[in-house]
Design brief:
This protein is an alpha+beta fold and 136 residues long. It is built from 3 helices and 5 strands; from the N terminus they run ββαααβββ. The strands form 2 sheets. Strands 3-4-5 form a 3-stranded antiparallel sheet, covered by helices on one side. A two-stranded antiparallel ribbon has the order 1-2.
Length: 136
């Protein structure tokens, strides 16, 4: 009989040891620590989706580069292309993430999109979601 065992990252076994920081940074503490791999994966994904390619020094391929796609006219076809682009870039850069739901809502008159992004962590089967507004 198979058991649905939940895998736990070794980083999560030390609850008093921070493994990353939250995004966005707060003015009060500047860096707020994160203590679980689930939370850190969420903030890594947010950072990735908000970063343009060639924006990070020494790592020119990091970032989804979604803002560059907003300079095109927003149509149903461009939204589908944006969704497939996000899907492929997340799968290439985050092998531990399985995308369960992805929806891009366009607001062409205001020049922004809202990305609703649901995912599951491959090893632990924990799920989470992100909603991000990206301006042109």
């Amino acid at each position: 009989m198979a058991y649905g065992l939940k895998k736990i990252s070794p980083l999560d076994l030390k609850p008093s040891t921070a493994i990353g920081v939250k995004i966005p940074f707060s003015a009060k503490n500047v860096f707020t620590s994160v203590y679980t791999t689930k939370e850190q994966t969420k903030y890594n994904l947010i950072n990735f989706l908000l970063t343009d390619r060639r924006e990070t020094p020494m790592v020119p391929n990091f970032g989804a580069g979604i803002r560059s796609l907003l300079f095109e006219q927003i149509t149903n076809n461009s939204i589908e292309n944006m969704e497939s682009y996000i899907r492929s870039s997340v799968e290439a850069n985050f092998p531990n993430v399985i995308i369960s739901q992805l929806n891009v809502e366009p607001y062409p008159d205001e020049s922004y999109v809202v990305i609703n992004f649901g995912y599951v962590l491959r090893n632990s089967n924990q799920d989470d979601e992100i909603t991000i507004k990206i301006d042109a």
